[in-house]
């Protein structure tokens, strides 16, 4: 694991509970963002202004990306 990957995992672990407590957030993961860089993806039922105000574009130098996924359902 690279130093960047380790940093992303640490930031995710540190903030995941806080982000999941935001109404409409359904998941937090690590993956390739739209800009082709590794970062943290925040999955939401619907992107709205309240969510955008509570989730920054970057935390501790790690890029975040909000993705509208809808609700997750177990099969």
Task: Identify the notable features of this structure and list them briefly.
alpha+beta; GMP Synthetase, Chain A, domain 3; 75 residues; 32% strand; 2 helices; globular; four-stranded mixed β-sheet
Could you describe the 3D structure shown?
With 75 residues, the chain is an alpha+beta fold. The chain has one domain: GMP Synthetase, Chain A, domain 3. The model has no long low-confidence stretch (mean pLDDT 94). It is globular, with a radius of gyration of 12 Å. Helices cover 32% and strands 32% of the residues. The longest helix has 18 residues, at 3-20.
Q: What is the CATH architecture term? A: 2-Layer Sandwich
From the alpha-carbon coordinates, what is the Rg to the nearest angstrom? Answer: 12 Å
Mean pLDDT: 94
Order of helices and strands: HEEHEE
Shape designation: globular
Structural class: alpha+beta
- Classify the beta-strand content into a percent band: 25-35%
SSE layout and pairings?
Layout lengths: L2 H18 L4 E8 L5 E7 L4 H6 L3 E2 L2 E7 L7
Parallel strand pairs: 2-4
Antiparallel strand pairs: 1-2, 3-4
Quick structural overview:
The chain is built from two helices and four strands, in the order αββαββ. By secondary structure, it is of the alpha+beta class. It has a four-stranded mixed β-sheet with strand order 1-2-4-3, with helices on one face.
